[in-house]
Structures are given as structure tokens and as C-alpha cells.
């Protein structure tokens, strides 16, 4: 039997004591960190020690006995597959949590349930109040008090539209600030992971696994996965001919081959996000190779500034083909005016139909082509509501050195597309930018699902559509008619027409009215009949002549020397100091100036071209009431001129349109809540599964401690036994 010698047994016992002692210490460390967040359970890597070379001690049975146990190192108990699954679920949790956060803000603004009187929401209640005031006016045609009450109710409705629109803008600004905070958090995480990679790499070179640093890194990767969906991979980095260390690489999941890198060992990137999006190419065509190019946001363009995309900057090369755009410090700098000329040329190639540049590349004006200028202006107007443009800086190490790519090229910045990110960042971005049914062709080209993604702009447009349809409908119903004059009572209580000047021929009895006055006088009537509304007491021939001269003195604009026109004109406008009823939105809808001053009133009668008394005619008010209850068609292009879809997306009354917008929001919130709860449940289950492998279990560790204690005691007993044997052998042999 091949056996070890007596002193070899001492070695086996000694190694057993060492292994048991180390295992006890490691178990104690596990127990001490049972409540440490992110701590991964550790274990001692034990291997059986074997002999090297020929067996020195043997007998005829030729049996081999081991030489003891050797502790090779310490490792963590983790399941990489479980990590991948958990982080994927966390990306979904982060995405739907962020979206739910935004939708809750919207619901606080648009939720109409229980905020008004009775069972009505605020705006719905005000619509009902306006309807009631119109009904009262219909029973009291041309009553000044009733007209004032209608206007007062309309003012309250207009103010609600303004308040809701302003609240949506505030919510959008809040979410934009939140997105900026999230981007800053992501950049901090990426920096920390990069620095940890460097520390772990240095520890690995000297044979240290740096398990605690790995735990910290894993926590950061878990946190990163809530902001953006990541793909985590490990490979080996060759240090020298004989040694290699593990390298952690993180990329954005689903970005192809090669993927978009966030971390490459000791190199890392940073997210970039301009204040708002650069403007998309106004002459965009799907088959245009320049389709992904942008120019600056509207304010920069108007100021003559050009903001270039990373791809444009990366295209700039010196004579040797090397990039001349330095991103190491996060700032773009050019080396020489010649390269600025290159950029100017690139810009002119794209936008020469639209803008003029000076020799320094500054915008000095627009082209003379009216259509081209209109395209630029329209793009500028929409720029601030465009998608948020995000990008990645070049990969650099802690000292700012650019990472060398394959082929000895350096890492370059990357422009991120509309659908690259997934997680909280993408959700916040979509909440801020997505227009749903109001999306343009360009939006859909960049993101095929843009027409079904609803962010704050969708709800802004829906509210704008309601405000505009309501204002335009009421303005059209109240447009001035040919006849219908303002009246008052004279000193004798006779109803007479109002005039806008004392010089009116109907007042003086001169001018073209002189001949009629002569006929009235000859028939025994005075000139006051020229202003009387009721002419039934006159002979038919005189009545006809008076009507003719009265109609000559119509004052459609209220500025001539004649009879004041009966109320009619725009009730709503884009500002309180004007009467323009075009381009109305929820944010700018106002009571028209002339209505607020009383120059315009609600026209009570629907038609009047006969010159007869219509003082009690309320047919037009009834018409307005009918319109309030009629179904209207709402089309995206009613409020967004470049919307891809121009078919109706809803048909209903004003109140039904408002309720539909709230129902869409409620449905979005319900769906998002369901998805969030589902992903959260799965993520928690996966985390529990992870913890069952990598977490510290007190019962399990206590069992291990008892086992290692017994192993330690057994090894010590072996040592004692061997000592007794040697004592007997040595001392007995001497005697």
C-alpha cells in the first residue's frame, strides 16, 4: 500500500487544521455580513493535495493515500444566469415605474372625477354651466345681463383650459428635470463601475479576488439596470505572456453587433443630453442617407449657432485620417479653422435650401424661397417639442485617455436613436416627447411605434383639439349677419336704432335722408321715424322708402356714420387683447377683446334679412345649444399640421371628447400599473431565488460552523494521536 510517512501525516493534520480554521473564519464573516446589502456568500475553495513524482513509500497492496487538503482561495456563490434574468426584469420595473410616475402626475391634472360640483369634473361642470347660461339667454333674447352671465361662464371655462395647459407644461418641465437627474445618476454609476473595474483589475494582478469590491460593483450594475437595459459580459484580459485577469464589459442590450458599449474594462462612457432636442432635417426623406441628422434646437438656430451630431464630428479627419475632434474632456474642440470649414460644408450640403451661412459658418439668414423658409420656420417652432436627443461620449479611462478600438482606432462618441434605450430613461423621455396619434411621418420613421406612444404632448394636443374645436364652433355660430341692428328706447319709450355718431344723416335729416324727411313732413310725420324700428304706423310707400335709407346706413364695422350693427363676431381669440380666432390652443384661448368690452354680443337670432323686429328671436342661441350637444370629429391635423394621420381619432360632443381624453389616460395608467405590478412581482421572485444562492442563511451558516468545528477538532485529535504514536515509537525504541 502506498502510504505517506508518519511526518507526512503531521502535514495532513496541519493542513486540515488550517482549512477548518479558515472555513470557520469565513463562516464568521458570512454571518457578520448577513444584513449587508449586496453581500454575496463566500466559500473556501478546497482541493485535495496530491503527491508530485513517484511514490516513495509503498507495499504490495499498492494503494495510494492523499496528502491532505489545500485552500486555494475564496470564491462567491452567485448564479450569473439568475443575475441576467433579474436585471432584465429590473429594466422593465424601472421603465414602468417611471412611466407610472409620469401618468400619476397627469392624472392629478386631468382627472375630472369628483373635482367639480356634484358628479361632474371641473371642466365638465363648467361646460354644463355655460350650457345653462345659454339656455337662460335663449329665454331672454338680447338681455344684457344674460349675455354678461354667459360671458362670465365662458371666462371661467377659458381659465380652466389655460390652467390645465399650464399645469401640463409644468409637469413636462418637472419630468425633464427628473430625466436630467436620472442621466446624472447613470453617469455617476458608470464612473463608479469603471473605477471599481480598475481596482479589481489591480487586485487580480496581485492574486486578490477583491470580493467585496465585486459586491459593490454588482449592486451598481443592478441599479444601472433600472435606468437602461444592459448586457453584462466577462472576458479575460491578457496582462503578460503568462497572466490574465477577468474583465467586465457592459453594453446596451439589443444594440446589435458590435453593441453600443457603456463599460469596457477600465474604460467607461458618459451619457450626454442637450437641453432639448436638436431639430430634425426639414427635408427628411426615408431613403435619404442623411435621415438621422439633426441641427440645433430652435433657439440656437435662431441665434446663428450650429450644433453638430457626433457622427458629423467623427467624420472630421486630418490629412493622416485621424479624428480631429477631441472628446476626452467632454468638450468638442476643433484644431484649426480648416476643420470648421469642413463642418460648414457638411451643414450647407444638408441645409443650403433653407439657410444662408457666412464664411465662419454662422447663420446669417434664410433663403428667399418662401416654401423653404416656411419649412425652416415650422421646424423651428416644433424643435422644442421634438424628441430629446441623447448620446454617449467616447470611452475613456480614469485619466481621460481614449480607448483603442480594433484596428488601432480610438473610441468615438455615439448618437443614440429613439428606440435604443429601455428602462427609466426611455420612459421619461417618451413621457416628455411622444405625441401618439398626433405623431408626424418623421416621428414614425424614427420610431415605428410613435403613433401609439402617448406622452404629455399627446394630452396637450388632445386638450388643444378640444379648445380649438369649441372656440371655432362658437365663433362660427356667432359670426355677424347682414342685418340686425342695435336698439334703445328714446325719451318717449319708443324703440329706435342706435347710431354711432350724431352726424348720421338719420339723426340730422340731411344728406341722402333729406328727400325722405320731406315726404314724411308732407304726410304729417317727423324725422324721428328715420330711426324707428317699428314702422307699421307708416303708409306702405313711406315705410319702404324709410327702410331703404336705413339700410344705406348700416355699419357693419361700427366705424361708419350709421346704425350700429346688432351683436355678432368672435367670442374667443388667441389673446385677451385681440379678436383673432385662428390658431387657438388650450394655453392661449381667451375671451375676444370686443366681447369682453361689450362691442360684440352673442347674436341671438339666426337669420335676419327682412328688417322686421327680432328682439325676442333666440334661434341662434338655440343653435349654439344644439352645437354643444352635437358630435364633432377630431382629427390630428386640426392642431398639428404635420401629423401623419388625418383621419378622425374621435367623434363626440365637447364633454365626451374631454371624457375620452380622461378615459385614455385612465386606460394608460391601468395598463402601466398592471405591467409594473407584474414585473415587480417577477423581479422580487427572481431576487429571492438569487438570495437563496448568494445570500447568507443563518441556519445554513450555523450548520457549517458546527461542521467546521468538528473538522477542526478532528484534525487536532489526529495531531494529538500522531504525537502520541511518535512518543511511543521514539521513547519505546530507546528503552
| Helical stretch tally | 19
Low-confidence stretches: 114-120, 275-309, 324-343, 366-370, 376-387, 609-613
Q: Biggest sheet, in brief? A: 4 strands, antiparallel
Number of strands: 21
Provide mean pLDDT, rounded. Answer: 78
Strand order, largest beta sheet: 3-4-5-6
Anisotropy-based shape: rod-shaped
What's the end-to-end separation, in Å?
30 Å
- Helix amount: 40-55%
Beta strand %:
5-15%
Radius of gyration, in angstroms, nearest whole number: 42 Å
Q: Which secondary-structure class do the elements indicate?
A: alpha+beta
Can you characterise this structure?
The chain has 735 residues and is of the alpha+beta class. Among the domains are: 109 residues, no CATH class; 106 residues, no CATH class. It has 19 helices and 21 strands. The protein has a 4-stranded antiparallel β-sheet. Strand 5 and strand 6 form a beta hairpin.
Amino acid at each position: 500500500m502506498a502510504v505517506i510517512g508518519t511526518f507526512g501525516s503531521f502535514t495532513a493534520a496541519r493542513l486540515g487544521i488550517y482549512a477548518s480554521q479558515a472555513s470557520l473564519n469565513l463562516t464568521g464573516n458570512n454571518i457578520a455580513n448577513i444584513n449587508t446589502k449586496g453581500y454575496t456568500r463566500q466559500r473556501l475553495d478546497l482541493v485535495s493535495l496530491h503527491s508530485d513524482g513517484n511514490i516513495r513509500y509503498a507495499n504490495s497492496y499498492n494503494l495510494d493515500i492523499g496528502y491532505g487538503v489545500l485552500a486555494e482561495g475564496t470564491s462567491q456563490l452567485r448564479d450569473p444566469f439568475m443575475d441576467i434574468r433579474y436585471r432584465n426584469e429590473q429594466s422593465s420595473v424601472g421603465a414602468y415605474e417611471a412611466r407610472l410616475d409620469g401618468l400619476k402626475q397627469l392624472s392629478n391634472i386631468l382627472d375630472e372625477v369628483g373635482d367639480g360640483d356634484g358628479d361632474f369634473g371641473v371642466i365638465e361642470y363648467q361646460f354644463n354651466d355655460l350650457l345653462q347660461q345659454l339656455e337662460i339667454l335663449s329665454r331672454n333674447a338680447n338681455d344684457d345681463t344674460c349675455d354678461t352671465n354667459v360671458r362670465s361662464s365662458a371666462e371661467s371655462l377659458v381659465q380652466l383650459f389655460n390652467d390645465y395647459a399650464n399645469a401640463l407644461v409644468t409637469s413636462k418641465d418637472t419630468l425633464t428635470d427628473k430625466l436630467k437627474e436620472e442621466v446624472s445618476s447613470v453617469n455617476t454609476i458608470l464612473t463608479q463601475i469603471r473605477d471599481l473595474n480598475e481596482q479589481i483589475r489591480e487586485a487580480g494582478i496581485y492574486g486578490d479576488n477583491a470580493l467585496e469590491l465585486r459586491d459593490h460593483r454588482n449592486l451598481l450594475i443592478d441599479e444601472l439596470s433600472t435606468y437602461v437595459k444592459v448586457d453584462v459580459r466577462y472576458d479575460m484580459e491578457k496582462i503578460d505572456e503568462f497572466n490574465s485577469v477577468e474583465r467586465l464589459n457592459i453594453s446596451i442590450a439589443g444594440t446589435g453587433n458590435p453593441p453600443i458599449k457603456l463599460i469596457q474594462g477600465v474604460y467607461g462612457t458618459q451619457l450626454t443630453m442637450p437641453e432639448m432636442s436638436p431639430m430634425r432635417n426639414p427635408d427628411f426623406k426615408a431613403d435619404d442617407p442623411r435621415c438621422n441628422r439633426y441641427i440645433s434646437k430652435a433657439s440656437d438656430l435662431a441665434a446663428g449657432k450650429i450644433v453638430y451630431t457626433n457622427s458629423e464630428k467623427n467624420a472630421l479627419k486630418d490629412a493622416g485620417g485621424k479624428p480631429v475632434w477631441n472628446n476626452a474632456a467632454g468638450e468638442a474642440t476643433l484644431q484649426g479653422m480648416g476643420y470648421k470649414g469642413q463642418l460648414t460644408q457638411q451643414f450647407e450640403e444638408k441645409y443650403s435650401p433653407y439657410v444662408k451661412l457666412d464664411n465662419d459658418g454662422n447663420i446669417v439668414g434664410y433663403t428667399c424661397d418662401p416654401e423653404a423658409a416656411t419649412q425652416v420656420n415650422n421646424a423651428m417652432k416644433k424643435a422644442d417639442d421634438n424628441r430629446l436627443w441623447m448620446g454617449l461620449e467616447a470611452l475613456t479611462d480614469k485619466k481621460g485617455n481614449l480607448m483603442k478600438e480594433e484596428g488601432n482606432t480610438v473610441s468615438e462618441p455615439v448618437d443614440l436613436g429613439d428606440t435604443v434605450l429601455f428602462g427609466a430613461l426611455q420612459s421619461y423621455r417618451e413621457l416628455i416627447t411622444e405625441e401618439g396619434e398626433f405623431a408626424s411621418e418623421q416621428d414614425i420613421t424614427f420610431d415605428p411605434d410613435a403613433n401609439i406612444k402617448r406622452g404629455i404632448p399627446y394630452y396637450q394636443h388632445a386638450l388643444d383639439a378640444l379648445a380649438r374645436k369649441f372656440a371655432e364652433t362658437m365663433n362660427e355660430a356667432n359670426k355677424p349677419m347682414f342685418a340686425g341692428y342695435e336698439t334703445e328706447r328714446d325719451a318717449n319709450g319708443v324703440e329706435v336704432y342706435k347710431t354711432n355718431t350724431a352726424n348720421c344723416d338719420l339723426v340730422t335729416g340731411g344728406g341722402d335722408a333729406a328727400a325722405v324727411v320731406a315726404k314724411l313732413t308732407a304726410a304729417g310725420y317727423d324725422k324721428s321715424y328715420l330711426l324707428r324700428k317699428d314702422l307699421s304706423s307708416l303708409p306702405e310707400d313711406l315705410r319702404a322708402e324709410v327702410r331703404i335709407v336705413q339700410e344705406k346706413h348700416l355699419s357693419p364695422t361700427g366705424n361708419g356714420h350709421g346704425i350700429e350693427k346688432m351683436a355678432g363676431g368672435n367670442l374667443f381669440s388667441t389673446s385677451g387683447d385681440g379678436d383673432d380666432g385662428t390658431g387657438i390652443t388650450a394655453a392661449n384661448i381667451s375671451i375676444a377683446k370686443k366681447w369682453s368690452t361689450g362691442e360684440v354680443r352673442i347674436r341671438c337670432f339666426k337669420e335676419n334679412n327682412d328688417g322686421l323686429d327680432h328682439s325676442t328671436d333666440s334661434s341662434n342661441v338655440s343653435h349654439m345649444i344644439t352645437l354643444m350637444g352635437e358630435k364633432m370629429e377630431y382629427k390630428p391635423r386640426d392642431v398639428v399640421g404635420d401629423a401623419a394621420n388625418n383621419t378622425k381619432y374621435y367623434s363626440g360632443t365637447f364633454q365626451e371628447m374631454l371624457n375620452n381624453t380622461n378615459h385614455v389616460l385612465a386606460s394608460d395608467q391601468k395598463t402601466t400599473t398592471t405591467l409594473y405590478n407584474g414585473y415587480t412581482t417577477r423581479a422580487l421572485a427572481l431576487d429571492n431565488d438569487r438570495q437563496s444562492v448568494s445570500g447568507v442563511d443563518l441556519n445554513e451558516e450555523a450548520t457549517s460552523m458546527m461542521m467546521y468545528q468538528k473538522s477542526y477538532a478532528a484534525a487536532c485529535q489526529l495531531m494529538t494521536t500522531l504525537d502520541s504514536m511518535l512518543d511511543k515509537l521514539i521513547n519505546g525504541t530507546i528503552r
